[in-house]
Every structure is written in C-alpha cells, then in structure tokens.
Prior knowledge:
The complex is a heterodimer of chains A (355) and B (325).
Chain A lengths: L30 H26 L13 H8 L7 E3 L5 H7 L3 H7 L23 H16 L5 E6 L6 H12 L4 E7 L2 E2 L2 E2 L12 H4 L4 E5 L3 H16 L5 E6 L18 H8 L3 H11 L5 H24 L18 H16 L1
Parallel strand pairs in A: 1-2, 2-3, 3-7, 6-7
Antiparallel strand pairs in A: 4-5
Helix pairs in contact in A: 1-2, 1-3, 1-10, 1-11, 2-3, 2-8, 4-11, 5-6
Chain B lengths: L1 E2 L1 H15 L3 E5 L15 H5 L4 E3 L4 H14 L2 E5 L10 H7 L3 H4 L9 E6 L24 E3 L4 H13 L4 E6 L8 E2 L13 E4 L4 E5 L3 H16 L3 E5 L2 E3 L3 H11 L2 E8 L4 H13 L8 E5 L10 H4 L3 H12 L2
Parallel strand pairs in B: 2-3, 2-4, 4-5, 5-7, 6-7, 10-11, 10-13, 13-14
Antiparallel strand pairs in B: 1-8, 6-12, 9-11
Helix pairs in contact in B: 1-6, 3-4, 7-11, 8-9
Amino acid sequence: xxxxxxxxxxxxxxxxxxxxxxxxxxxxxxxxxxxxxxxxxxxxxxxxxxxxxxxxxxxxxxxxxxxxxxxxxxxxxxxxxxxxxxxxxxxxxxxxxxxxxxxxxxxxxxxxxxxxxxxxxxxxxxxxxxxxxxxxxxxxxxxxxxxxxxxxxxxxxxxxxxxxxxxxxxxxxxxxxxxxxxxxxxxxxxxxxxxxxxxxxxxxxxxxxxxxxxxxxxxxxxxxxxxxxxxxxxxxxxxxxxxxxxxxxxxxxxxxxxxxxxxxxxxxxxxxxxxxxxxxxxxxxxxxxxxxxxxxxxxxxxxxxxxxxxxxxxxxxxxxxxxxxxxxxxxxxxxxxxxxxxxxxxxxxxxxxxx
Amino acid sequence: xxxxxxxxxxxxxxxxxxxxxxxxxxxxxxxxxxxxxxxxxxxxxxxxxxxxxxxxxxxxxxxxxxxxxxxxxxxxxxxxxxxxxxxxxxxxxxxxxxxxxxxxxxxxxxxxxxxxxxxxxxxxxxxxxxxxxxxxxxxxxxxxxxxxxxxxxxxxxxxxxxxxxxxxxxxxxxxxxxxxxxxxxxxxxxxxxxxxxxxxxxxxxxxxxxxxxxxxxxxxxxxxxxxxxxxxxxxxxxxxxxxxxxxxxxxxxxxxxxxxxxxxxxxxxxxxxxxxxxxxxxxxxxxxxxxxxxxxxxxxxxxxxxxxxxxxxxxxxxxxxxxxx
Lengths: 355, 325
C-alpha cells in the first residue's frame, strides 16, 4: 500500500516523533521563535487552502497545494538572514512568507498577474516553473557571493522529480567544484504528479546523490519542523563560514493534488494519504508546544482564526489591486524597447480602444 | 593597431575586466588554455582565477549559474565552446536568462553575455559549424549580435557587456584569423541594434552579417564587372532586434533586395527581413526579395560543406535574377 520513499534501513534525522515527543536535541530556538514557526506553518496551509478554494470559484489560477509540507517550507527558510537568497519552485510559498514576501503580493500572482513591486529586499527569486532549473540559479547566486566576498548564502529548493533532471545534477556538481555557499534542498514529497519516488531513482535516498559530487548530505524528517530547522541552520552557517555546500533531502508528503488541475485518485491509494496525514507536521509541532506549555488549545484555535482573517484580508487587498495594464507585458521584455515592439504595443492599444 | 578578430575580442574582454570589477569570464578551457580559439588567452593569469575561470563540462550549468551571478549583480561573460552546443543550454537561455526581467516585472535583470563561435567552411566535426541565430529570433528578451570584422567585434562586445539584458554574441570561426584590421587599443563601443552600410550602391541592397559580408562584397565586385551594377551592402551586426530603419531605407533607394546567411532558410533572418520589407515598403520593390542561404538540412559533413554555404557565385546568380527586366 504505502510507497516507500526510502529504504527502511535509512533513518532520517528527527527531533520530534510523529506524536510530538522530543527524541533529539533541541535546536537553539526561543519560545517566541518557535511560536513564529508554528504561525508560519499555519499561514502556509491556510493560504494554500484559500487559493485552492478561490480556484474552484474561478477567482484564482492553477495552484499547487503545499498542505503536508509546511514543516519543510518553513524550516528551510527560517534560518536565513535578510541578505541570503532563496530560489524555489512553485510549492514553497510558505518559504517566501518566512523570508518576508507579503501575502497580498503572492495572492495577486494567483489572480494571473505579476506583482509590480516584487520585494527585492527579501532576496527571493519569483517562483520558477521549469523543473530543477532554479537549482543552478541558487548555485550561481552563491558563486557570485563568494566572488564578491559577501557573507551571503543561497538556498535552492526542488522536489523529488527534479532530481532526475540534468540541471539538478549539474547544480550539485558546480556547487561542489566551486565550493559555493549554497544549500540545495530536495523536498521529497513522494510524488511527481503521478509518478512515485521509486520511479525517479533506484538510489536508496536522494540525499545519497551528494556523495558522488563530493557534497555532504543530510536526510531529515521533513514533517519535523525542529529537525528541518536544525539541519538547515547548520548547513547555512557551514556555507557562510566558507565550508561549502550541503544537500538536504526532506522526507515529506504531498497530501493534496499536484495542482488544482490534477486528480490524484487516478493514481494513488487513499490509505497512503491517510497514513501520512497521521504524521501531520502542524499537529506534531502543536502537540509538542502544548506539552511544553508554550501553547494552549485555545490559543492554537485563536491563531488559526487570526491567520484566516489575515489571509482573507490579503486576498481582498489583492483583489482590490488594479489589474496589470493590458500592454504591460511589453514593459518587461527588455530594458529598452526596440521600435518594432513599440509598434506592436501601439497595435494592441488601438485594438483595445477600437476593437 | 592591426588586430585579428581573436585579438580584438581578447582586447575587449581585457578592457572590460579592467574597467568593471563585476565582469567575470567562465566557460570550458578558457583559463590556462585561453579558450580553444585563444579568445581568452592570458586573461586568467592577468585577472586571477576568481574573475576568469574554467567550469566543469556542462553547458546548462554554465548558463544557469551565470543567470544566478547576473541576478546577484555580476556581469558574467560565458563562453559556450561551439554554437552547436547551445542546444544543450537552450532551457537556461530561453526559459530562464531571457525571462528573468519579465518574470519579476523588472525587479530582477539578467545582464549576461554568452559568447560562442559559429559558422562553416573550416572542416569541423558535426555541430561545430552550425549557424543557429535563426532559432533565437523566437526568444523574446534575448539580443543576438554577430560581428563581421575585428573593429566591430571589439566595439560590439563592449556594448554587449554593458547591456542591461542578456546578449548572445556569435563569433564566426572563419573570420577569427582570416584578416587583420586597424583596431584601437583603447575602449570604444558600437551601439547594438544598428546596422552599418559597408558599401553604397543604387541597384540592389544586400543584407548580410558575419562571414557573409565578405561573400557579399566579392559578389558585388563580380556584379560590377559583369553587369555594371552598383550594390549596396548592409552589415546587420545585430540580428535581434533587427535595424528595421536601415533595412527599409536601403531598399527604398534600390528597389531590389537579397539576404545572405549561412543558417537554414525556413523562418530565418532572411524570412524576417522579407516580411519587414513586405510590411513597410512593398511598393518600393521592383522584384521579389532574393534569399541566398544555407539549405533546410542539417549542416553537412566537411567533404560537402562547400556546396552548402552561400558563395559569391550563388549570390551573383541571385543578383542576376533580381536584375532581370
């Protein structure tokens, strides 16, 4: 029934077990920081569910749910400093929130527009759709930081399917050869649309890919926020200290469909989904926080209510933002528009004015 | 100073490395070896391994990491050893480098130059002679530059490196060492997007670039001798975006036009120039636009390549056709 994401002999790094019990060494996090992680995990889930609901109503474009992967998305971004770069695929929206990209900015993009004011100070590249290519951008950003002598780290994130792409392997190789200050993260969520993890590679773990490239690797329970944070924090600071790149594989699960255009009942067993729902990352962390008296059930519910309100407001703001100008796609093709494109723009504007 | 195109390009790179600390060079065999054609000779020893460095043998990673470096604020100049290998990094070039500005609504830019040798007539193995510029007419956001002589090569490369957007800079292999030309040792820039009138004439306009400019010049000499006609030759220099004004201006004067390029005919630069003339000055034309190009086949093996390439005699034949009453 259950798809094996790894060989049973490989033990992923864990700090919290699925029941929220402490089974490892606590990372250096204050109560306030832990509650912030908890909040961002909920924010990611609530936002994701909201966009899926809007898509069903025809108010949002195609969207890939991140439900089930909140610990990885939040944990990989939380150790980053403002000057550090993040280069992601489309399933790490919560990572962008942690890094400071405003929720309305992201919501606006799922109306089918590009935000005119992408917050460059967050050092997040806009989400990238072609599988695996962003890993090379992360490596290039890190190579540039090293050449410039800046104490800057970059993080690239992809899924398990991307590890079959040439660019993923070329990125690992460049990271190793140039000892780039980069952390390459594979969110292994078990599925690349309908193709299971074992169809991507016969390697026991995807983390083991690092060995062949001379890049140290970590295998971590991707539904354990503390474990993801801890591994990422150490990898990021190792990179910053000039000790080179790390590959991190986080074991998690895509609870939802690949995107709103996908129907997973065609290819996977619901029992498998239920087995992973029992390892839910938010529930796990919540149990831990309540057990440590850092959170109460009431406060947890209140947090969800507050965040739902925040997401609703963000969506309202995004929906109140003016649509992009119809001819604005000409603006961003190149810095100086050639005469030919100006003519084409004028053609479009005449069509809009007069049909 | 008299320079070959290799020396002119080397001089441009050295000056840009000196002028702008953000400029870095990367590629295969560009360091100690100085590039397989020696365009980057001595640059690593002069500017250090942080600024001029060899990469593993992976075209996609050369461009993909350059995209990251360009976004960060460097000015990478990447070498792809032969233009035929651009196919191996097409994804990073077309779907990434050319779209960074667009994807981020101008928040991020990708000031990247990709240099690559191209072109036939030098008896190379497969995919070392191909002219791929036509492919790149369909990649919005990417400029394509092809110089025809050492002086232009140096000035155009300086502009390409200063450009805020990605530029594909294609260098004709046959022109690398075929002649020397007086070229200033100091920095100068030739603007992108501007064609040059190489020779003025009133009877036919020939549009060419790269190695085909000299083919056009030879054909024009033959036409002058045999037919007593005067050919105007326009060196396009920038293939995308094309200098429409120069194209239109010349054919309005001559009424006859021929396009010459090495790359295949279908959907190529010649097709686009014909369409530009159609759109803007069809009634200036006395005859349909002629095209002397590579054929719509793969670039042939060395033993047959001379049949494939445009020659002065092929161009002369086309000139006779457009001059028919």
